[in-house]
Amino acid sequence: MIHFTGQLKEALEIALREIASYRQNNLLVAASSIVLINETLTQLKAFVQSYTFSDSLEEIDFFKNIAPEFFALLIYFHKVYTIEAKKPSANIPLQKKHLQREYKKIGYFYCANVDFFSYYNSGMSDRDELLFLSAKQDLLLLPDDYAVLLDSSICPIATYKIAKLKAYTRLEKYIFTELDLVKSRTGTMTSAFPTTKLSWTDSKIAAAELAYSLYANKSFNNGKVELRDIVQEFEHFFNINLGTYHSSYQDMKMRKKSRTSFLEELRDSLERKMDEEED
Known about the structure:
By secondary structure, the protein is mostly helical. 73% of the residues lie in helices and 0% in strands. The chain has 12 helices and no strands. Helix 4 (92-112) runs antiparallel to helix 8 (157-192).
């Protein structure tokens, strides 16, 4: 057991470091890491299902000390992916608020589980059998995100909580680092860009439709520009947070009538203005 899980964890950590070395974007690092970790957890599950624990102590040791190390990585990168996907692209104050809001969630989690963490950190073991033997967990007490991320057959609720504790300890450092980067960019953004007097007052999905159209038409830099860069400039100059603009794009594609209703509205408005001036 220890030999197999030790080698599996070491190989996973090496692969994760390789991903981080060639992926510069936090969102891409998180996405690639999640895929890799899930593949590793599939191997771990197959091993556990075919393995017979020598006794309850070995089973408890696995679910209390070994398994949380793997699941903590999955939880951590899922959180990083969510934070990055929802982070405003160019609005510095909104980025700061977004990161601070995520940090508060960590505090809420700690407060909600303070008794369990006190038990875990104390080194006591009198409740271990109830907490870490998978057959004894109460599935009615599953946390909201438990079923989405984890497999209850190899991750009892207590294992999940320890894993989340480890993940959030690492996530705190990530959030502090990102907040420092946001603060360092505040002065740069202030001096580099003039204060805009324009504010977008139409819908967010209309703004996203326009940004995507300009990107698809290769209207900037002969098409040699990333969509994210266009969105960032759009957000800055028009004082709008497009948030998860990828979701807006999916909504556009699913429209039952016209998928480019805002562009058609712009065309109609311009033609109507021209007609009025000719009359």
